[in-house]
Amino acid sequence: MSSLARPWLLDASAKPASPGTAISSATPSTSKLGLVTCDPTNDHILPFFHAPTFTWTYLVLDSSRTRAVVIDPALDYDAASGHISSASLQPLVGLIRDRGYQVTHILETHVHADHLTGARRLKTLLAQQQAAPPVIGIGAGVTKVQRQFATRYGLDDAALADSFDLLLESDATLAFGQSTCRVMHLPGHTPDHVGYMIDDCLFAGDSIFMPDVGTARADFPGGSATQLAQSLTTLLELPDDTKVFVGHDYPPPQTGRPEMTCSTVAEQRQRNIHSPHLDGFVELRTHRDAGLAAPRLLHPSLQFNLVGGRLLRNHFVIPVQADWAA
């Protein structure tokens, strides 16, 4: 969808994300409402919650519990002062150091538009405490997203070059230690969106959320509610007991539940309020998206994340649009 069709894509102001309750890093999520049938407390998946952006980062260990991948790390960013901080990464880095894990890959599910990626900074920090630095991987569709936004943010080919170490095609496999990770292309929220399948766990990023939250928006440039429906249908064809780990959680205020990390495919199929199996999903998703405000950190996030979390300039470009003629 073009930016002219959605003026908020050029608007520097935005409503804050839905409120939630922060929980401490690496604290397993539990449900008082019985919504989660999978066990998020297993010892090979360690979640970290970034409260300012309601983002889940996952440290996933291999079967030997010595090698690991990190999925979707986030940085702190204060838009008023322009200050970027890696304080949000310190609990993760400290745990990796204290337990002697070797991180082989840092994996992004997509170019995020609601927080600044910690991938590049995390790679630098981990390189100081392990034998070799991890590599940063993202779906191969990222090149399409880069082309869509490069001109808007003044990014030339040189700026975009070598932003990521690995561009991952759908069904590609990555080995880390004694385990493997399979890439699943899940477009819709963004064209480059992928999920990562490790054993019986799918790290679904922003394609699907907890059943009582629904699904991700699909109105970003290159996004598609129709593609999202197709991706979710593919996701929901996985075995019933597959654990689906979400990239964000926004607990509905009326539930009183804490932030949670995962559900099962069976539970998603039966209870997701935006199920793609319902008639009118595309219309429902499109109508809902039309009323959503821009993510609060849209412009800083996109131009930082398009280049893999590199700070190319000492400022961000914020396009503006006035409601009167110049």
Termini separation: 25 Å
The top level CATH class name: Alpha Beta
Number of strands: 14
- The CATH architecture assignment turns out to be 4-Layer Sandwich
Strand arrangement, major sheet = 1-2-3-6-7-8
What is the CATH homology-level superfamily?
Ribonuclease Z/Hydroxyacylglutathione hydrolase-like
Summed up, the domain count is: 1
Instruction: Kindly report the CATH topology.
Output: Metallo-beta-lactamase, Chain A
Low-confidence runs:
1-37
Average pLDDT across residues?
87
Protein name: Related to metallo-beta-lactamase domain protein
Pfam family, one: Lactamase_B
GO molecular function: metal ion binding; sulfur dioxygenase activity
InterPro entries: Metallo-B-lactamas (IPR001279), Mito_Persulfide_Diox (IPR051682), POD-like_MBL-fold (IPR044528), RibonucZ/Hydroxyglut_hydro (IPR036866)
